[in-house]
Design a protein that fits this description.
Blueprint: E1 3-5, H1 7-18, H2 23-30, H3 35-42, H4 49-59, E2 67-69, H5 78-88, H6 94-109
Antiparallel strand pairs: 1-2
Helix pairs in contact: 1-5, 2-3, 5-6
Length: about 110
């Protein structure tokens, strides 16, 4: 079974959430991660497992959000995928992304 990490989505979500904050500030927020490591991840490099887990916790998403399997379909819900892609969006403001996520949350609550 081959698994692949969606580094583009991870980098986009990291950049989007940190917004105007510096990499050092974010590294301190996440803990046990250097600014240089975060910079490499934002450039599409694959992080080590511990760093990946810390970043996912900071992003408030599951690790499955970024992992694709060849033999088994990803078990992440459609909602989680949509939210992850919205958070990675670079053209929309954080306020707009947050509003869209609220709309999605409301839609899933009324199903």
């Amino acid at each position: 079974m081959q698994s692949t990490l969606n580094t583009e989505l991870l980098a986009g979500m990291l950049k989007n959430k940190r917004a105007d904050k510096g990499l050092r500030t974010i590294a301190e927020e996440i803990g046990s991660v250097s600014a240089a490591t975060l910079s490499r991840i934002e450039q599409g490099k694959i992080p080590d497992v511990d760093t990946f887990i810390r970043i996912c916790k900071w992003l408030n998403v599951t690790t499955d959000t970024f992992i694709y399997n060849d033999s088994v379909k990803n078990l992440v819900s459609t909602k989680e995928h949509v939210v992850a892609h919205l958070r990675a969006e670079r053209e929309l403001s954080k306020k707009t992304v947050d509003m869209l996520i609220n709309v999605i949350d409301m839609a899933y609550k009324t199903k």
